[in-house]
Amino acid sequence: MKSPKSPLGAPKPLPPYDHMSIESKWQKQWAKKKIYATKEDAKKDAFYVLDMFPYPSGEGLHVGHPKGYIATDVVSRMKRMQGHSVLHPMGFDAFGLPAENYAIKMKTNPAIAVEKNVKRYKEQLEMFGFDYDWSREINTTDPAYYKWTQWIFLKLLEKGLAYESHEPINWCPSCKTGLANEDLEDGKCERCGSVVEKKPIRQWVLKITDYAERLLADLDATEKPLMIRDTGPDAVRPGMPLEERNAVVCVVKHWSEDKFLCLRWKSNDWHGLVVGGVEKGEQLAEAAVREVREETGYQNVRFVREFAKLDSQFYQAIKKVNRFAHFTGVYLELTDDAWKDIDEKEKALHEVVWLSRAEVAGFLNRPDMNYLWDVFVGKVKAEQPALDWPTSIKELQRNWIGKSDGMIFTAPVKDTNLTIQTFSAHFEACYADTFVVIAPDHPFLSTLLEGTKDKQKVLDFCAALVAKRAQQGFAEEKESEGIFTGRYIVDPLGNGDLPIWVASFALADYGTGIVKCSAHDDRDFAFAKKYGIKMKTVLYPKDAVLAEKVSAQEVCFADAQAGVLSEPKEFAGKNARSVRKEIIAHLESKNLAKKKTTYRLRDWVFSRQRYWGEPIPVVHCEKCGVVPVPEKDLPVKLPKVKSYEPTGTGESPLAAIEKWVNTKCPKCRSKKVNGVRPKARRETNTMPQWAGSSWYYLRYMDAQNKKALVSPDAEQYWAPVDLYVGGAEHATRHLIYARFWHKFLYDIGAVSTTEPFKKLQHVGLIMAEDGRKMSKRWGNVVNPDEIIATYGADTLRVYEMFMGPFDQQIAWNTNSMIGSRRFLERVWKLVGKVQVGSAASSTGASSTEVESLLHKTVKKVAADIADMKFNTAISTLMILLNALDEQPAGVSREQYETFLKLLAPFAPHMTEELWAQLGNKTTVHLASWPVCDEAKIQEASRKIGVQVNGKVRAEFEAPGGASDAELEKLALALPEVQKWVAGKQVKKVIVVKGKLVSVVVAE
RNA sequence: GCCCGGGUGGCGUAAUUGGUAGCCGCGCACCACUUAAAAUGGUGUUCUCAAAAGGAAUGUGGGUUCGAUUCCCACCCCGGGCACCA
Predict the structure, then answer these.
(1) 3-state DSSP assignment of residue A138
(2) pLDDT tens digit sequence for A97-148
(3) Is the Cβ atom of A3 within 7 Å of strand B at any atom?
(4) Strand order in the sheet with A680-682
(5) Is the CB of A727 under 7 A from strand B?
(6) What is the ipTM of this complex?
(7) Assuming Cys at both sites, which of A62, A103, A180, A648 could form a disulfide with A113, CB separation 3.0 to 4.6 Å?
(8) Nucleotide nearest to A503 in CA–C1' terms
(9) A423: which nucleotide lies closest, measuring CA to C1'?
(10) Cα–Cα distance measured from residue A710 to residue A706, given in angstroms and rounded to the nearest whole number
(11) Which of A's residues 56-85 have CB atoms within 7 A of nucleic strand B?
(12) Segment A898-910 mean pLDDT
């Protein structure tokens, strides 16, 4: 059959889809017309989409790198079409070890190597047709940029958050520099794999630990519910987690009077009994009781009954009203009359009122409440996490910060006037402590040993332990080793004199570096057994046989959660964990210990003894000491040098550049004192790779500003970053550092938000076809240049988005790409079937079914893109394409244009070309995004499945508005159903509107 | 050891809030077009039984339910992170 004729005559022959010429043509046009220029337009909502900017290596991009960039490009294009002012910038992070090591290898200056690599990266990025506004490009190695990195350092110094330290730090012998804890992997240098040593070197350190508590707490911070701020299609997203929607509604009856307690929502005219959400793993009744206790302070609440199970039909009926969520009703009763006031802070949003029976009835009869199914409906938007981040990344940060609540014990050292402090987070069994261990590299050790007869022997032993650690890495040590110091502490808890041992497992830089030990810790127990140290038990399991073994010190029992204490006598017979609070009070009241919180997070070692980094802007003056470089003298430029190889002496190569190093003290101007001119030398350490990336997202907002790192106007317009996309490997480095700096900048008033990134989305790695990481080493790298030449950038973009869930790791498969190419070619060909006749053709050429599908697609594609579910968005577009293509009368221009708009974010070049072919003079990328017409997606009839005893036996077409009774009748009349039902007693029929009829018969 | 994810056809995956498991794509088979091939279009494609009817099936085993990929309990496997952190 020939393709249908256009009303205007014979169909034009279609040109083939020539991606090469189309893509380069439109890339030039877009650049020329500056269609992606970003503006701070007060009339539009700002939307800031950000990629983790690349670190331009010498190898260029492989096909895995751009996956995240494609995603942000798709989102930014849709948001722009939806009328937002969009900031979608790009830049380069280029200071630091990788660039420097590469330069050393290639025997070029890092500055030149970086310039070359950036150029190559930009060329590659441009081939993808991304919508960056290059006028905001940044480069961390640009003095105009790092001026502000240095400025932030000066502010940190001013506030006492940057300090010099001589403590031993991680030293990589191969890279010849100090490293932060975050730069280690398995005790080895993350860059080169060498085992790091502990080396005492003068370092600049940032006090990130001062922010540990806020970095931790803000991960869980919530935003108070904003009532219907956004009534657009985004307000209730499909796929929004149940916890966000499913709230419990409680009716709480007074214990004696005929009164009902109501938690009233005051804002937006909403009166509700909304109590809160059901948490995962929680029963409805538990949730209701818990929430009422938390919200009102009423403790004596008894669960009476649940009103009914949620009815899904009901949700269907109100689903389209985006501000409604559904709840389930629970009936509780107060068991006493103890009045409690609710929290002051909550009063603005809630109040507790008592209603009479009549009032409750009236209340429940509101139109937004539905009695019929005992399910109440109202407006609610549950408290949302302030950080819309994947739970996994939040969890990684929590682990990294490693908060631990415990107690500090202080004890005198026998025969000396010294005291020792020990930290314990598992202090419930502290009455079992019988010895103390100290780390072999503890700075206090030599003082402690002063005057003991074996001092030198112990010190030698410790030195050997430390050397062994450095050699083989910490993790590989299996069995603990130790030596008795000859000293004892006098136990404050009355267990007499406790020996102090050096133990290889003790860490000098956690807690106090000294630990009180007992039989109730696996490691301590093994250590004591090995060296025959006396032990004592105070914690026993419930099982009598096992308890006997614990008592005999045959096995170690360390489970405070399950164990029962025997000492101190105040808590004898009690479960250890449940009396934790009381033990704290007991120890504090007797002045035996103090509460203390410690963190695993260490301060950030911030200096590198390397050339390629931002110079730390301070001067060391013989007379004035450390003097910050005045702001007006920033940036302190990195000098050009001939030799930039690391020295290994603990000094950076900059130290050798006399002309640069020797300077005037900014404070005393190096004026002569008693005829001698005080010498002033610049700091020669440089900043780590992570410095520039800790604040770069702010600079894009106002990239050219010479007076401030960002102007308040620009910052307030754009901040925070609405969507941040990048690899999960940055969870404990870049993302912690950036949050730390951001909070600091907030504290000094430089930014207006407490967190930099509102929503974080991590991108799943693209693996090579062999399942390994793409790497030059394996020879499995797929080059995007070649793929683009063969298939086109649009095909590559569609393929990468269609491969699978965006956040999932997935293997590249060039063969599968053909599907995406075919899809685009079918779109290309479909333009030949577009009917360009009268206006009537838009209805004439399309059935209501296709129209309905079109509008469903409009809705789903927008929701999926906003949700980063690109694979299903494309799948939906494919389904629509199949339907449009199969229409016998061709496709209407309106349908086709809508389709092009939906596809435009994914395949910007091809859609632009087709858009122009239809005669449009303006770009598709600034056209308005299609809007779903809800009326059109209602269906006239639906397929209903019929189950008999849970098994699907038949299906039938039912009219859209059929009632439950009608559906039941229709279903039971079906012969396939009768076959299973005939002669049996029908016990129950369940009707799920629009879905299925379930018949239960007696067996 | 501890903490997160995840296990669905030959493969990548989909499944709205507990409601007809396998959408979309790849691959494969057959058909059309072609001298032929490629490309394109069409049909089919979870397994099992010769077909139909039926049965089985979402890592394993149990539970709740009229109904479970989805909720609960236990276990196995894979991926990632943390790890002498007291």
Answers:
(1) strand
(2) 888 888 888 888 999 999 999 999 999 999 999 999 999 999 999 999 999 9
(3) no
(4) A625-628, A618-621, A680-682, A662-663
(5) no
(6) 0.95
(7) A103
(8) B84
(9) B86
(10) 9
(11) none
(12) 97
